[in-house]
User: Fold this.
Amino acid sequence: MKHLYLQIYLTVIASLIAFATAAGALWWIYVDQLAPRHPMEIIAEAAQALPPADAPLGQQQEGVNRLALRLRGDAALYARDRTLIAQAGRPLPPPEAGRGPRAWTVPLADGRWLVARVSREYFRARRPGRCSGWRWWRSRSGWARTPSCAG
Assistant:
């Protein structure tokens, strides 16, 4: 190639293709890890990990506590006759099939019911807030808070 403009043009095109390929590969690899999981997925997994119905109440309470921690919310386990077995967090209403007032209700195979409510911070914890990159840079550089990104 004798023309300098062709070399520059092909270099720019090659770098754009390399950047797009690298960005696409990283997106494909990490997109599942960055997105918050739907609370119903976590509830379904936790329902399978709960102790059996004939387990002591302490074990069932421990399972409900683990679920509430994962959801950063409230959880309750009810018996077949809808009496409360274990609860973590704020009180939840007795179960109804489907979705209750801001809570998910899951019937378990052994007749028990799992009711869970997710706090708002569950979704905020994985999603960057407004000006989050700016806040990070300011914390490293020693700049004071600015009104546009305060809070």
